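Hi F.,

I've been meaning to write this up properly since the lab meeting, where we talked about keeping a consistent format for the predictions we share between groups. The idea is simple: the sequence comes first, exactly as it goes in, then the structure tokens exactly as they come out, then a line or two of notes. No screenshots and no reformatting. I'm using this chain as the first example so we have something concrete to point to.
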Amino acid sequence: MTATATGSGGAGFLGRGSVVLGVLAVQVVAFVAAYAVDRPTLYALFALGSAAALVGVQAGWRGFAAALVGTALAGLVGQQFGSVWILVAGPVALTAAVGPTLAGDAWRGLAFAVGGTAVLAAAASLLGSLVLLVAGPVVLAATVVSVDGEWVGVAGATLGTVLLVALGLPLALFVADQNPDLVVEQALDPAVHTMLYLTVYAPLLAALFTLAVGVPLAYLLAKGFPGQSLVETLVDLPLVVPHSVAGLLVLFGFGEGAVFPDLPILGAMPGLILAMAFVSAPFAVNVAREAFESVDARLEYAARVHGASGADAFRRVTLPLAGRGIVTGGLLAWARAVSEFGAVAVVAYNVRFDFPLPIIGTRETSSHAPVYVFQTYTGGSLAESNAVGFLLLVVSLCLFLAVRWLAYGGESAASRAMP
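Output, unedited:
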């Protein structure tokens, strides 16, 4: 059985609801245990390692071994936090949760990865050498390459694990270090409610505005026209302009005494939306353009041959086929707007808007989430800014997953790529 077939089987087994519940139960137990001994770092390392392992299983046992061992090696840095035991408890708990659902090569891969992790962890503990953090993945890759030559998959799993650790470890530590009481207190604060609403609502309006004016432009760019390179440069310019400068450009372009003197910009919702649209437009336009370019031109031609007008061919053929790419571009634009600080701080540090909606709402003043977190942090309360950041992280993640689920359903990247 090949690694690809094994990975597919592992992914199928891991899709069962009972496995999901089992893994969640293990995570809850690990979380409670870590807080019981007042060492949240332990759970952070455990969560990161188990997540990488589950992802690795779906790539086949070789990818699983490389991912889990690489994560364990990086996790050895946690020795300075007194968390060596997690390198043993983590694989054991993962084996107990996932092992019964696996069969054949997937089970052997799990046993191999757990055993290899234990051996490398023990060696690193005895030697106390950070060199092993670098040498371990290299030795693992060289070993598997010498056996079957699948160096691409091994290198991808090993180096990819390093990136996952670099991205996931700070996130896991941040989540594990939260004070539950303070998070609940901030979640019940009306000012935080207003801030979170503004942080979701304004980027949504900015993303919709960007799609409304950017999708037609993306279609034209996909078809090509004279002077296209100049337009492409202008579209991509916000990617390289410092975002504080982008805020100044919005002020000078649309503020008082500019093109639209009656449009409220400074400290107002229109200014906030324009600042967000300025920095997020390249994402929406470029992704939508790639989606249009992926549509077979022969399909449009066939529709025209059968009597459809240009508008009908676009509406019935091109737009549905490019729809997912357009949704992805809008999602990226929304995400970029949510995270924007520089341009927003210049244009709309504090925003006056109608909460929850114009006409039916009351006049409120709040700040976009990155600005609000910065205000809380500079006010001397790191713990409160962490709690607010955690709430923003949860809200953003839920919305992000919801939109992707609506756009792609349960399809994987591989199934979307199939003709």
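Notes:
DSSP finds 19 helices and two strands in the chain.
Strands lie at 351-355, 362-366.

If this format works for you, I'll send the rest the same way.

G.
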